[in-house]
């Protein structure tokens, strides 16, 4: 097992050359580039369960078939940044290689777990060499700026299952990154459960 977690990371809206959505830099994208340029990793999986679509990461690697991007988020018709529809699956050489799963406002853990099965099938097919998890806590019920109703158990499930998948394909490598979250009690609940699972 080679797991790490950085709570102040996961800023997923900035583009390669501009700030956006509370994010000056996009450390998720930088982590992907660093893994490839400095550590010789080719296929990286980016899994994003923040309530907002990780548009900065998605569009930065939209034409790159070696970046697997699975993003569960509140439907963009109801929440910033408005992107991440089912039909957005990548462009050019990467067309059909990305997975966007919009969730309806009010979606709970049952809806999340059903969608999560699809994420696992996607990662099984893609066989990443490194897995990144952006586990924004703003997808929990009670967040003041979003409308999803997940609990910390959704985040725990994601962390636990990515650990299993990482053992299978990625030499055990998982990097968790905090991301959004505007209810402090939710931040504490979600991320302590993520750390608990990553450390198990
Ligand atoms: Zn967010």
Give structural notes.
With 200 residues, the chain is α/β, with parallel strands linked by helices. It has one domain (2-199): 3-Layer(aba) Sandwich (Arginase, Chain A). The chain has helices spanning 27-39, 55-60, 109-126, 152-169, 184-199; strands at residues 2-6, 44-48, 67-74, 98-103, 130-134, 173-177. The protein has a six-stranded parallel β-sheet, with helices on both faces. β5 (130-134), α4 and β6 form a beta-alpha-beta unit. The model has no long low-confidence stretch (mean pLDDT 97). The structure holds zinc ion. Residues 50-52, 136, 138, 180 line the site of zinc ion.
Number of helices: 5
Question: Uncertain runs with pLDDT below 50, 5 residues or more?
Answer: none
Overall tally of domains = 1
Q: Strand order, biggest sheet? A: 1-6-5-2-3-4
Measured as a percent range, the helix fraction is 25-40%
- CATH secondary-structure class: Alpha Beta
**What is the beta-strand fraction?**
15-25%
- Extended strand count: 6
| Ligands, deduplicated | zinc ion
Report the CATH architecture: 3-Layer(aba) Sandwich
Q: What is the C-alpha radius of gyration, as a whole number of Å?
A: 15 Å
Q: What's the end-to-end separation, in Å?
A: 9 Å
Helix and strand composition category: alpha/beta
The major pleated sheet works out as:
6 strands, parallel
| Mean pLDDT figure | 97
């Amino acid at each position: 097992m080679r797991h790490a977690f950085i709570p102040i990371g996961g800023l997923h809206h900035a583009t390669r050359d501009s700030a956006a959505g509370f994010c000056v830099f996009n450390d998720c994208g930088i982590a992907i580039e660093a893994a490839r340029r400095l550590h010789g990793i080719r296929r990286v999986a980016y899994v994003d369960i923040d309530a907002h679509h990780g548009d900065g990461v998605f569009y930065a690697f939209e034409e790159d078939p070696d970046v697997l991007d699975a993003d569960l988020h509140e439907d963009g018709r109801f929440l910033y940044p408005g992107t991440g529809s089912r039909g957005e699956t990548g462009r050019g050489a990467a067309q059909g290689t990305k997975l966007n799963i919009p969730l309806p406002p009010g979606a709970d853990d049952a809806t999340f777990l059903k969608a999560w099965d699809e994420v696992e099938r996607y990662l099984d097919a893609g066989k990443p060499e490194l897995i990144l998890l952006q586990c924004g806590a703003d997808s929990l019920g009670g967040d003041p700026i979003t409308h999803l109703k997940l609990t910390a158990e959704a985040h725990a499930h994601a962390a636990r299952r990515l650990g299993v998948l990482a053992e299978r394909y990625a030499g055990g490598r998982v990097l968790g990154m905090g991301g959004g979250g505007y209810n402090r009690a939710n931040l504490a609940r979600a991320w302590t459960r993520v750390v608990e699972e990553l450390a198990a």
